[in-house]
Amino acid sequence: MKINGFTETLRELELGGTNLGASDGVDWFANGAETESLSPINGQVIAKIKQADAGDFDRIIKTAEAAFKVWREVPAPKRGEIVRQLGVALRERKDALGALVAIEMGKIIQEGRGEVQEMIDICDYACGQSRMLYGVQTHSERAHHRLYEQWHPLGVVGIISAFNFPVAVWSWNLAIALICGDVCVWKPASPAPLTAIACQKIFERVLKANDLPAGISSLVVGKGSQVGELLLNDKRIPLVSYTGSTRVGKRIAEVVSKRFGKTILELGGNNAVIVTPHADLELACKAILFGAVGTAGQRCTSTRRVIVEASVYDNLVSTLQRFYGKLTYGNPLDEANLVGPLVNTGAVDLYFEAIETVRKQGGTILIEAEKLDFEGGCYAKPCVAAVENSLPIVQDETFAPLLYIIKYEGDVINAINIQNDVPQGLSSSIFTNNMIESEKFLSHAGSDCGIANVNVGTSGAEIGLAFGGEKETGGGRESGSDAWKAYMRRQSNTINWSEGMELAQGIKFD
Ligand code: NAD
């Protein structure tokens, strides 16, 4: 397949040299400061962006509030049809948008296309879900009364996304929120404004083709400390869906809950793979390799820790060394490469600082990292270190291809206890062909994470199940299963079709 360069990709996605960063789905405007989007591939400016200011933000929210009153009147399956059309439009631009993801944040083109495929999948899923926004009904204790529950839309949903899934996070939220009858305002991450503008342009065509009013899907490009803070503090936004670091997530939780707003929090992980003596080691190492170095270690579900039983430790380390030795590095637009750059120079610096800290805290480096000087980009080789789980650095999420190997002895429950002994609770997996070990891992006394897999790595979830994690990962759920309920408000209804006024619990009041 021919891969276009920067210029062709921008042209195909209708992006120019300078782009406006605020849109209500019909008009584009922006009165804030100009910023540049740099590519981690070579450090060059891809394009410029005029950011939104406070006035633009206010305009967007006013328009969104008005659009909500129209959108909530559209029957849910018809809302699903609009989301289906977004899926069709994304199919048409999958290669270009996947390439822009690679150009702007550095993940390899195969993963960039995979991210767009995930957007398409959630559109299909949401379209079907639009006919299944079920509430329960139950029997009343009173004669000729009916009890039932229904779900109503919330209003304006604020979406704040992380840089590492610059397009998929928006679609997971948008597709489900829209079929629920909400309207959306998206503030993308600062390293990836162009992918956001491209997505908004793709959806804009669908909205216009269906004569929909401004405000159903809006975009505000700006700094977290400016536009992001406006969004958190705005009472007109009943739900903020935030994906990003635990540090910022704590602030989001505090500010939004103080005004009794709702949040969906998708925060950092510290994901482990347990390898028992009953594991297929080659299979485990394949999953660990993708988990640890895929997206250059910048997935919330990236494998950070391997907890391996003592008798298979040496074999696992030598297999990993062999696998790591075969990795190919370089331009993420070249399909021959498996590891592209980190997102920016700051991320590379934090990575090498973390490796120094591992050494200082007593860890032993098993596979050395190394800066790679390709085209002036942000490339580095991954690192593997033998550590104790209790090291302060191991308890933290380092958002880079830094993998820790931790030894355990005895029963699998010892490995599970080590796995759970971190503040985060996103993704986890066990490699074993022993049914008792895997059942222990999946039981109530097993993994404490939102995601627990058997003979599958920690990263690469499908959209069909709810996605999210426990503890400092924030407790939010997005995507499939019944995650749609977070985008709606529940209403319990009692209807009296008798001719009297009977009270519940047998109370007499006359
Ligand atoms: P980040 O926390 O630096 O930024 C995330 C978003 O928050 C950005 O859009 C940023 O502009 C915004 N922001 C920053 N300060 C803000 C403020 N005061 N008010 C409002 N918004 C503000 O995270 P990042 O570096 O972009 O992404 C990496 C992190 O995201 C990692 O910790 C990763 O694990 C996490 N993540 C989690 C999931 C998940 O589903 N659990 C998915 C992807 C990424």
CATH class identity of the largest domain:
Alpha Beta
Largest β sheet strand count, sense and barrel closure: 7 strands, mixed
Structural class: alpha/beta
What's the oligomerization state? single chain
Computed over alpha carbons, the radius of gyration is: 24 Å
Strand content: 15-25%
Q: How widely separated are the two ends?
A: 81 Å
User: Which outline best applies?
Assistant: globular
The number of domains = 2
- Total of helices: 15
Enter the CATH topology name of the largest domain: Aldehyde Dehydrogenase, Chain A, domain 1
Cofactors and ligands present? nicotinamide-adenine-dinucleotide
- Counting DSSP E segments of at least 2 residues, the number of strands comes to 26
Low-pLDDT sequence parts: none
Biggest sheet, spatial arrangement of strands: 3-2-10-9-8-11-12
Output the keywords:
7-stranded mixed sheet; 26 strands; 38% helix; binds nicotinamide-adenine-dinucleotide; globular; 510 residues; single chain; Aldehyde Dehydrogenase, Chain A, domain 2; alpha/beta
Give a description of the structure:
The protein folds into two domains: 280 residues, Aldehyde Dehydrogenase, Chain A, domain 1 (3-Layer(aba) Sandwich), CATH 3.40.605.10; 192 residues, Aldehyde Dehydrogenase, Chain A, domain 2 (3-Layer(aba) Sandwich). The termini are far apart. The protein has 15 helices and 26 strands. Helix content is 38%, strand content 22%. By secondary structure, the chain is an alpha/beta fold. A seven-stranded mixed β-sheet has the order 3-2-10-9-8-11-12, with helices on both faces. The chain has a seven-stranded mixed β-sheet with strand order 15-18-19-14-13-21-22, sandwiched between helices. The longest helix has 21 residues. The structure holds nicotinamide-adenine-dinucleotide.
